[in-house]
Structures are given as structure tokens and as C-alpha cells.
Amino acid sequence: MTSGATEERRIAGRGLDRAAVLAAALRSIDRNGAQRLTMRGLGQQLGVQAMSLYRYVSGREDVLEGVVASLLDGLVDRVDPQLSSTWQGYLQTLAHTIRAVAIDHPNAFPLVATRHPAAPWLRPPLRSLEVVDHFLVTLGRFGFNDDQVVQVYRSFSSFLLGHLLLEASLHGGETSPVEEPIDEGDAHFPSSDGTLELPPGSEVLRLQSKLSEDHGHEEFEMSLETLLDRLELGVTQ
Amino acid sequence: MTSGATEERRIAGRGLDRAAVLAAALRSIDRNGAQRLTMRGLGQQLGVQAMSLYRYVSGREDVLEGVVASLLDGLVDRVDPQLSSTWQGYLQTLAHTIRAVAIDHPNAFPLVATRHPAAPWLRPPLRSLEVVDHFLVTLGRFGFNDDQVVQVYRSFSSFLLGHLLLEASLHGGETSPVEEPIDEGDAHFPSSDGTLELPPGSEVLRLQSKLSEDHGHEEFEMSLETLLDRLELGVTQ
DNA sequence: ACCTGAACACCGTTCAAGT
DNA sequence: ACCTGAACACCGTTCAAGT
Prior knowledge:
2 copies of one chain form a homodimer.
Chain A: H1 3-11, H2 18-32, H3 39-45, H4 60-72, H5 87-104, H6 109-114, H7 129-141, H8 146-171, E1 189-190, E2 196-197, H9 203-206, H10 208-212, H11 216-236
Antiparallel strand pairs in A: 1-2
Chain A binds a DNA duplex through residues 11, 13-14, 16, 38-40, 48-52, 54-55, 59-60.
């Protein structure tokens, strides 16, 4: 071990920087959800007092925004270049890449999906200038004109948002505190084990098991195919 | 004024009850967003101390869940019975009824869309036993079999979630505090007036005005038509 | 340069006490 | 029955002070 290396480590202190703070925040959100992320807890997780974090982030809001950015960062480098030789293939690999984020971070994805977009042209879940620009440029190269590019961008983002947020909210939710609403006649009745008690004879009760099946993957693939088919018609007609 | 009426008013006290608390909470969320809803502020709005609210709600979480329920409450009575004579018409009027909720309460709709569903068969934004049951029963009456009903339910909810949350997040957002992230080279650059500064030459910059147009209504109508067409094919084939 | 102690102005929630 | 004062255990954030 050279004294240079030691020096380097000592200069770096605990090695704390913005990326490390955001990484720790993401881990915490993955475990407990964004609601339970506190600056004090985040500091503790990094072996430091909460106040130290303000050297790297401007506050809790900046942490959350930074986590969103870190999830989308470098996303365009993860799309499959092989598949990107057609616009259909590009949209497919891009969709799958973003879906991977939602599946890997179901508790963080709602942030990507619902935080107020910084600009109207940053439609969730494509909340990244880098991603949106790549999208627009790529479709333009495939021969879409401006109106078509924008139209595809709109349908594509709505499609992703609906499917991925739904999938994330079914997967996520972790150990949510079982809350008993105060009894008020017509409310639904969460029973003591946290599951909803269904009124006898209701259609939901009869179809309960079928409704509870998880077909996230097939649903996504089928709807993506349908979207591409529809776009294809819109382009060639 | 009879002494009976006075008595009645006095017995009712400030007329506080669960519905009044939830209504005040919704008004507050409409103005300031759910994040800024506090029990203390809610009490103040009702002329009462925060602790008094705990007589009607079990806590802040219960308030938020109650607001969601109140938004969806009685929704099935607001669908147009004329249009409900065909399943296509039913899905259309139901979709429009739910869209009205999203448009009227853009700051509250993210709650409907993203709070962890109480059960896997309560897919956001259809987070209400009443609505889902009505949906399943009605489609069954129109001749869909169990598998078809469930499939339609899945596509319909994904469609609504994607379009309405996107529309709500563009409309909502109110007076968000302008947050400056700490400078870190590769981040995007929010300029002093809160708008994002676009890199020169980027495709987003060139298409900025087209991307910023609001076509929420047409988009919704067109995608709804497309969905219905697709379902029609799935049913008759 | 990096971290912290102390402090400020808040939170949600409980509970015994008031009327 | 309905409301509250006081208290507890937290928050995010600032800033002067330490090393």
C-alpha cells in the first residue's frame, strides 16, 4: 500500500459524494419506500450526521429528484443495438429497458412516474432529457416526420406509464403498516389480516382468483405489439 | 328560529364528521398537493385542533385513503345510462366519468393512481370495490365470459392509468417550490425562472413547442377508440 | 474541505383532562 | 360526546463552530 493511495483515501474522507448519497437513498427506497426516507436515516446509513448531506444535495427534494435521474441515467446505453436496426425493434428494446427499471425498483418507480415533470415535454416515465432526445432523434432517422415523432412519443409514454406503474404498484408496497380506518358503515371492510373482506355474492368475489393472477409480462408484450401495429398503420397510410 | 333547530345545531357542534374532514382534506390537496397536507393545517381549516380529527379518522394515512374513496364514491351513478346500452358505450362513459375526476382534481389524482392497492384485483385508478364490481357485472351482462371480462378490465385500467395520470401530472403541480439541485456537471440545467435550459442543437429544443402542445383530450379519445376497436376484434374472433 | 452541535420551526400521535 | 393542553418522539434545515 503506497502512501499515495492512503492519502487519496484520506482526502476522500468517507468517500462521500453525491452519487454515494443517491445510491444509499435508492437502496433505502427499495427497502422501505420513498415515504419513509428521512435525511437523518440516510445520514445514519452513510455513517454521518444528516447535516453533512447538505454538502452534496440541496435537500430532501433534491435527493428524490436525483434518485429519479440516477435510475434513468445511462438508460440509452442499455438498449440493444442489434434490435435497434428497425424502429419497431428500437421501441421494443427501449420499452423492455425501462420495464427492467420498474421491475427492479417497484418502490422507486412511482417517483419516476408521478413527480411533477420539470417541463411538459418530459412525459413520465421518460423523465430524462437524454432519453427523450435519443428517442426523438432515433425515430427521426427512421423517417418519421416531426408530427409523427411527437405522436409516437405521446402514445409510447402513455403506454409505458400505464403498464409499468400498474405493475410496479402490484409488486411494490413492501411492509405497509396495516391501517384500520374508523368504522363508517359503507366503507369496505379490511379484515384483521389486512386482506379485504368481499361482500358475498359480489362479482369481484367470484372472479377473485382470476383477477389476482399476475400476467404482467404477457400483458406488456401483447399491448406493446398492439401499439406497434397501430403505429405501423398510422405511418404507412 | 325554533329552539329545536338551535338545539340540533348545538348537538351537532361544529357539524364536524368524517365526510367534512375528508372534504376539507380534498380542498387542501386540490390547492397545495397531498405532500403539504398536515393534520394541524387540516384542523385549522376546520376551526379545530389537530387532535380533534382523530375522532373521525385514524390518522393521516386514513385521511388520504378516505380522500381517494370519496373521489370514487358514487362514480357508478354518474355514468350515462343512455350510452350504457352497449358495452362500447358503457366503457366510453365510464372512461369519461373517471377522466372528469382526474381533470377536476389533478393534484389528488396521483393518490388514486399510486397508493398501494389494498388488493391485486383493485387496479388503479379503479380503486373501488363498487366501481370494479359494477364493471365486472356490466360486462358479464353484455355477454363477455369470465376470461374476457378480466382481460378487458386489465386493458381498460392500464389505459386509464397511463392517460389520466399523465394528463393530471401536466395539469397539476401547482406552485411547486423552485429547487436548485447542487451543481454536478452533467445534470440538466434549470435556469433561474424554473424552465429547463435545453442544450443547443438538441432535438428536444427543435421540437419544443410541438412537444409542449396539450392534446390531452384528442389523445384520450383516439386511444379510447383504438382500445375499443381492439377489444371488439378480440371478442368477435 | 468536510463534518457536527445546537437550535429552530415544524411534524403525527397519544392521553389524561376539561366541558 | 366532543374538544384540548401538554407532552413525546420525531422531522428538515440552518449556521456558527470545530478539525
